[in-house]
Amino acid sequence: MACAPTRVRELGMFSSLSIPSRRHHSRPWSGPGESRRQRVISIRKGSFVGDTTVISYEYRDDEGRGPASDQPGEPNGRPDYEAWLAELMPLLHDGDPVLDLGCGCGVPATALLAERCAVTGIDLSPVQIARARHWYQRRNFQRADMSTLEFPSHRFAAVVSFYAIIHVPLDEQPAIFKNIHRWLRPGGHVLATVGSDPWTGVEDDWHGAPMYWSHADRATYIAWLEETGFTVLWSRFIPEGAGGHTLIFAKTG
């Protein structure tokens, strides 16, 4: 029976909706590599941890509504996760194990997936995981870093990751796709939002705290997936303001 439609590093956890707006508080990386690495560590694992409560509640209220300014014209100020997941759900069966990388507080995608699937939600934010566990006590939520996460091979029928991988440093992202490929069963699927244009930098005031972004362009992500062994079924541009993201759907052999 098919599943019904439905949803790291310290900054890979928010299932975020927006690319940096390039306002005055958005800035690209500059300076030597070590300084950049230290800045990433500081934002992700240092003072930023104390701000996750502010971001969590500003970004998602207890009903799963997001700020309308993130995605004008979309339901509840967010992308249409239900329509995206409707592409995946007919390919899954009741009770299939599904991994949500960067699940945030579990709203809305994880909750929609969990209506019929055995979902494992991964996020590094203790605030997000605590909220998810409170709302969905029978579901499996783990606080973990998607860059160092381990699962047995062929563990999942599908992996979803919405607006999360793009908060991991670019040079670490190919390894994440390799892990996803290993975790998926033969014929398993991955549905993920990634970058559309290349950019790495920091949004100094994103919902009240600094946010790190790092993403390549669409062609690079498709190449990485194909080199890893995925067959890319399709990719779509998801517009947002003056920019946007790429939604990619791929399967293992």
Q: Percent of residues in beta strands?
A: 25-35%
What is the distance, rounded to the nearest whole angstrom, between the alpha carbons of the first and last residues? 22 Å
**Uncertain ranges:** 1-25, 29-50
The CATH H-level superfamily of the domain at 81-199 and 215-251 is Vaccinia Virus protein VP39
As laid out across the biggest beta sheet, the strand order is 4-3-2-5-6-10-9
Order of helices and strands: EHHHEHEHEEHEEEHEE
Alpha-beta classification: alpha/beta
Brief write-up:
The chain has helices at 33-45, 52-59, 81-88, 109-113, 126-135, 173-183, 218-228; strands spanning 26-28, 97-101, 118-123, 140-143, 156-161, 184-195, 199-206, 209-215, 231-240, 243-251. With 253 residues, the protein is α/β, with parallel strands linked by helices.
Give structural notes.
This protein is globular. The longest helix has 13 residues, at 33-45. The chain is built from seven helices and ten strands. Helices cover 26% and strands 28% of the residues. Mean pLDDT is 78; it is low at 1-25 and 29-50. With 253 residues, the chain is of the alpha/beta class. The protein has a domain at 81-199 and 215-251: 3-Layer(aba) Sandwich (Rossmann fold), CATH 3.40.50.150. The strands form two sheets. Strands 4-3-2-5-6-10-9 form a seven-stranded mixed β-sheet, sandwiched between helices. The protein has helices spanning 33-45, 52-59, 81-88, 109-113, 126-135, 173-183, 218-228; strands at residues 26-28, 97-101, 118-123, 140-143, 156-161, 184-195, 199-206, 209-215, 231-240, 243-251.
